[in-house]
Amino acid sequence: MATLKDIAAATGISISTISRVLKRDKSISVSAQTEQRIFAAAEQLGYVPAHQRGRTAVRSEESHTKMGIAQMFEPDMVLQDPYYLYMKNELEKVCFEQGIETVTLFRDEQGRFQAPGQGGLDGIFAIGSFTQEEIRSFERYTPYVVFVDSTPDNETYYAVVPNFHLGLRQALNRFLQTGHTRIAFLGSFHTLQHTRDLLLDARLYYFRNILQEEGLYDPTLEVDSGMTAPEAYQALSQALRRWERLPDALFVSSDAMVQGALRALDEAGVRIPADISVIAFNDTVLSRNAMPPLSAIRVLQHELADAALRSMVLCREKRPYPFKTVVPTLYIERGSVAQHR
């Protein structure tokens, strides 16, 4: 049976770091790539945590379960937005803890998803939004597909999603409690949802509704941008030149945009939080390590992964009605919101 020393030899990572990562020690800070290397090596070598060895041995004699994980973004896009890499890591962790093997699906030249090796899969976790053709490529391997972060068809598929409504309530309530009335939105107006049809982004939808309820909605404070840092920089820079009066607060709809947004504000001489308060969405390393660190709406990725695994169990039991699990969000304060003067 593989040991921590074997994993260390395979990865070049210290035994103490490996042990803490496998035990989910939240006091240790490692990159998503390092976590992925550790869990991939542990799975490949057949490492089983001590507290699971008895029941895992019994389970492995009875059956072997293999799950595929597919991501909507190609690897180069994942590097720009680590949210999806963290989400994949969390799914691999919860499967690893249950003795479930995971494999990564990749697109072929025709854009269809393929699994490495031979044979079928016992289920697929699909992270993000996918076309009908891509979904059909999943079903070549298994009828059991659980979607994470999207809902292609409420009557057909199990899905787990963050509570966007709650997240926007948390962000806007924080702005309102601190006296802000001119609140801007930075993000893509449309999102690839429901089999990649362009629909109004859920964050913008709730942003508009909540501020309309408060009588504070101002469409001139919405900034349509792509979801990358360079696109956010360009869009916000143009808005800062266009606005005759600076907004009190800014909601950034994805951490992937944070560096670009902060660069635009810095070049315009706008200080956080003295001149403008800022809250970002997702709460990955990009908002935590920003300068200054940004208050954020945290998407609970471990809870999403855990809910996805529970949904897969029900899916494989062939329950007659699939359902969507909505996972709450948390507001994390880091000092980028100040009382409006």
State the major sheet. 6 strands, parallel
Helix content: 40-55%
CATH architecture of the domain at 162-299: 3-Layer(aba) Sandwich
Write down the Rg: 22 Å
CATH class of the domain at 162-299: Alpha Beta
Shape, per Cα inertia axes: globular
Tally of separate helices? 13
The CATH superfamily of the domain at 162-299 is identified as: Response regulator
The low-pLDDT segments are 54-62
**Class based on secondary structure composition and strand pairing:** alpha/beta
Estimate the mean pLDDT confidence.
87
Short note summarizing the structure:
With 341 residues, this protein is an alpha/beta fold.
Set down the secondary structure blueprint.
Elements: H1 4-11, H2 15-22, H3 32-45, H4 53-62, E1 66-71, H5 75-80, H6 83-97, E2 101-104, E3 106-107, E4 113-114, E5 123-127, H7 132-139, E6 145-148, E7 158-162, H8 164-177, E8 183-187, E9 190-193, E10 197-200, H9 202-214, E11 222-224, H10 229-242, E12 249-252, H11 258-267, E13 277-282, H12 285-288, E14 295-299, H13 301-316, E15 324-327, E16 329-332
Parallel strand pairs: 1-2, 1-5, 5-6, 6-7, 7-15, 8-11, 8-12, 12-13, 13-14
Antiparallel strand pairs: 3-4, 9-10, 14-16
Tell me what the structure shows.
- The chain is α/β, with parallel strands linked by helices.
- Among the domains are: 1-63, 434 Repressor (Amino-terminal Domain); 162-299, Response regulator (Rossmann fold, 3-Layer(aba) Sandwich), CATH 3.40.50.2300.
- It has helices at residues 4-11, 15-22, 32-45, 53-62, 75-80, 83-97, 132-139, 164-177, 202-214, 229-242, 258-267, 285-288, 301-316; strands spanning 66-71, 101-104, 106-107, 113-114, 123-127, 145-148, 158-162, 183-187, 190-193, 197-200, 222-224, 249-252, 277-282, 295-299, 324-327, 329-332.
- The strands form four sheets. It has a six-stranded parallel sheet, with helices on one face. A six-stranded mixed sheet has the order 11-8-12-13-14-16, with helices on both faces.
- Strand 5, helix 7 and strand 6 form a beta-alpha-beta unit.
- It is globular, with a radius of gyration of 22 Å.
- It starts with a helix and ends in a 9-residue tail after the last strand.
- The relative contact order is 0.12.
- Mean pLDDT is 87; it is low at 54-62.
